[in-house]
Amino acid sequence: MPSFDQAALEAAADAIAAAGRWLAQRDWTPATSSNFSARLDDAHAAITVSGRDKGALGRGDIMVVDFDGLAVGTDRKSSAETLLHTHLYRRDPGIGCVLHTHSRVQTIASRLYAADGHVRLEGYELLKALAGNATHEMAVDLPVFPNTQHMPDLVTQVDAWLDTGVPAWGYLIDGHGLYAWGRDVGETLRHIEAFEFLLDCELQLRRLRT
Amino acid sequence: MPSFDQAALEAAADAIAAAGRWLAQRDWTPATSSNFSARLDDAHAAITVSGRDKGALGRGDIMVVDFDGLAVGTDRKSSAETLLHTHLYRRDPGIGCVLHTHSRVQTIASRLYAADGHVRLEGYELLKALAGNATHEMAVDLPVFPNTQHMPDLVTQVDAWLDTGVPAWGYLIDGHGLYAWGRDVGETLRHIEAFEFLLDCELQLRRLRT
Amino acid sequence: MPSFDQAALEAAADAIAAAGRWLAQRDWTPATSSNFSARLDDAHAAITVSGRDKGALGRGDIMVVDFDGLAVGTDRKSSAETLLHTHLYRRDPGIGCVLHTHSRVQTIASRLYAADGHVRLEGYELLKALAGNATHEMAVDLPVFPNTQHMPDLVTQVDAWLDTGVPAWGYLIDGHGLYAWGRDVGETLRHIEAFEFLLDCELQLRRLRT
Amino acid sequence: MPSFDQAALEAAADAIAAAGRWLAQRDWTPATSSNFSARLDDAHAAITVSGRDKGALGRGDIMVVDFDGLAVGTDRKSSAETLLHTHLYRRDPGIGCVLHTHSRVQTIASRLYAADGHVRLEGYELLKALAGNATHEMAVDLPVFPNTQHMPDLVTQVDAWLDTGVPAWGYLIDGHGLYAWGRDVGETLRHIEAFEFLLDCELQLRRLRT
Which UniProt keywords are present, listed alphabetically (chains A, B, C, D) (predicted)? Predict the structure, then answer.
């Protein structure tokens, strides 16, 4: 008997599939890159099966993992990056959804700011779209971590950053894209939309100011 | 008994919802930014409820305010920026609609020209899309006001500018986006489409000319 | 009794409306700019009524003019630029359609190359999309004429250029957009799509090469 | 009696038509440029008839050729570039599909890197979308060949490159676009989507880094 709630899984799968259609329509999940998850309870998350077209997900494309990233009740394979999702659910019960996208703007910004280790976002009204922010008079440093095919290394770096206690909604990986999270799928999509907007403004202003 | 006409409210709500779909499809209202209103009579306006997805508005997402920006016949909350709409209806009976959008082009132009205080638009045939213009042989200065979370400050600045009597169809707020208006929803959309086009041309020409 | 064939008018109106939907979807006809026409016979053309939304044209938005640009059998008003269509039908019986669009790329290129008087397009395979071209090993000079609200001045300049006998598929007007033509609506759309592509490549290469 | 399987042809035609709709929606096949094919067996391929709108292909727009590029069982004409498809099927039985697209990014990159003879793609996670790659820690050199209207010259150059034995998923032709291939239509589309993404990132980073 599965240790998670089947109805919660179906609701999570439908919400993930809807998010995937919205993201794919914007071209932010090219060539079967990206992976998406949502919390089911305090020990399980629903997550996309590896290699599927993210714009055409059905319930059969979503599986369950525990917070060690191990498959539960299935022999399907989740993304190699599953740990980047589950370590967030384990460390913060307020996180209900993690979405990894791979837009051109995210990839370009990650490469351009990799040496700095972060992109500073400052003076934009849209910073208010990040949960908890009530003003444009603040700065957010979106971290850029080095890319690696060895996930535990990335988990260690993300944990060290989160341990500093700064407000955190996401991070970039160099040459790779964005990880973002939120209370639920809707808030996480709002965070992705805000980061995409803010990073694009930064890149375009950088071109215009030189 | 409400002091406004219910049929007028429904017509205004439907027109605002249609405008929202058109603007959201172009990505000019990201992450629940933006707010929209339409005049009902000489003392009331219909306006979007705060925080709603501007691409999927229904009648339930539109409420009524008076020209002090106070809710009428509802306990829902309109945008913190409601005063930026209602002071326009109060000062000019010819204004029937005010739409605030938040595109990347608008945000980038506002930041780039904030120090100048305006963006000069000159020599474009599309200037004829602004109501009352019959030729490309003219210049329009689109003002850029500093951003603030304190609306009365912005109202004071906008009023001072309008008091100079220059022809006016809209303004930018630094890091924040565009406020535009017109006789009705259709004319206001035409003004937004024209400003978006003209600002994008200016930004691209600036890159190409350096 | 009208001097033109009613069935031909209906067919032309439907083809123009379909072209308008295709062009509007690409954002090449913003803010009720643009105007479209198709030849009916050796003395009449169908043309869009002034000020209509070019993405939602119906038969009622298309009227008939003679080759002096005068309305036939209607008191509706065609575009102020009607003469730019009809002088082409008069001088070349091979021209069956004239479409005027107003994209950002066309406007930016027209401003940037106005001083040169033309944009040179060279070395592109897509030059083969222009009727009669069989190779990329050629150059096309797309003229840029100064903008004016006085149409006879423009007609005079276009005629002088066409009188030189160079192969001609269209021209730009400074700050204003593109006029293009072809044997029929389909060929004219192909010419517009090719010019838009080629002008965008030129602008982007210009940025990348400096 | 045809020497190929009719059911295989119909399946290939439907897959090619679906790919064409997907590519045309992204504007990667402008003005009837582009041509598409899929292997039928060890001596025949299905290929698009010349000059058709690639976003609206039906079974009647797909014909059969042998690996010398000659039409089989039809008097319709395939693209002048048919040999660029069939020589790939002849030399590699693992190739099941060849798609030629013509996006702005592909055309611009081809012109900009023609003198170098290739575009180096390095450090991108999305390199993993190319079949057989398991890491971002590698570099792919996408060749750029000079354009010509004489196909055997191009075939000779492509063959010489493939004879070196480097992993190969596609190449650019100067001013002309991309040829890409894969095991089947789906994999080939994934390769095109990856190259388009990677080339666009390269072009944008080049602008941002100068």
Answer: Amino-acid biosynthesis, Lyase, Metal-binding, Methionine biosynthesis, Zinc
In chain B, how long is the greatest CA-to-CA distance? 62
Are C30 and B207 an interchain contact pair (Cβ–Cβ within 8 Å)? no
Q: Quick check: C196 pLDDT over 70?
A: yes
Mean pLDDT of C9-34: 95
Rounded-to-integer distance, Cα B158 and Cα C94, Å: 55
Indicate the SS3 state at residue C117.
coil
Q: In chain A, pLDDT over 90 holds for what percent of residues?
A: 90
Q: Which domains does chain B have, with CATH numbers?
A: 6-209 (3.40.225.10)
Tell me whether residue C44 is annotated as binding.
Answer: no
Please provide the distance, in angstroms rounded to a whole number, between the alpha carbons at the two ends of chain D.
Answer: 62
D175 CA: distance to closest CA in chain C (Å): 5
Q: How far apart are the C-alpha atoms of D74 and A29, rounded to whole Å?
A: 41
- Is the pLDDT at A1 greater than 80, yes or no? no
Average pLDDT estimate for D11-40: 95
Contact A126/B33, CB-based, under 8 Å? yes
Q: Using CB atoms, which residue from C104, C149, C207 is nearest to B201?
A: C104
The CA distance from B152 to the nearest CA of chain C, in Å, is 32
Angle between the N-to-C axes of helices C185-209 and D185-209, in degrees from 0 to 180, rounded to the nearest 10: 50
Q: Which chains have 3 or more CB–CB distances shorter than 8 Å to chain A?
A: B, D
* A138-156 pLDDT per residue, tens: 899 999 999 998 999 999 9
Q: CA B170 to CA B182: how far, in whole Å?
A: 9
What's the whole-model pTM score?
A: 0.96
pLDDT of residue B2: 63
Which chains does B contact via 3+ CB–CB distances below 8 A? Answer: A, C
Chains adjacent to D (≥3 CB pairs closer than 8 angstroms) = A, C
A112-132: pLDDT as tens digits = 999 999 999 999 999 999 999
Q: What is the mean pLDDT of residues D49-66?
A: 94
pLDDT at D185 over 60: yes
Residues of D with CB under 8 A from a CB of A: 123-126, 129, 134-137, 190, 193-194, 197, 200-201, 204-205, 207-209
Angle in degrees, CA B25, B30, B32, rounded to 5: 110
Please report residues of D whose CB lies closer than 8 A to that of C25. Answer: none
Our CA-based measurement puts residue A27 at a distance from the nearest CA of chain B, in whole angstroms, of 13
Which residue among B134, B193, B204 sits closest to C30, beta carbon to beta carbon? Answer: B193
Confidence tier at A36 by pLDDT (50, 70, 90): very high
pLDDT confidence of residue D96 = 98
User: Within 13 Å, how many C-alpha atoms sit on residue C125's CB side?
Assistant: 30
**CA dist A139 → A29, A33, A125, A133, B114 (Å):** 28, 30, 11, 10, 19
Taking residues C134-142, report their average pLDDT: 89
| Cβ atoms A148, A156 nearer than 8 A | no
Q: Chain C residue closest to D149 (CA)?
A: C135
Contacts of A135 in chain B (CB under 8 A): 149
Element (H, E) at B24: helix B6-25
What's the rounded Cα separation, in Å, for the pair C24 and C101? 9
Give the pLDDT band (50/70/90) at residue C138. Answer: confident
CA dihedral B121, B122, B128, B133 (to 10 degrees): 90
Buried b (16+ CB within 10 A) or exposed e, B22-31: bbbeebbbbb
ipTM of the complex: 0.94
The distance of A205 to chain D (nearest Cα, Å) reads: 10
Q: Say what the pLDDT of residue D162 is.
A: 97
3-state secondary structure of B121: strand
Q: What is the pLDDT of residue C33?
A: 86
Tokens of C61: 């938005």
Whether residues D125 and A31 touch (CB distance < 8 A) is answered with no
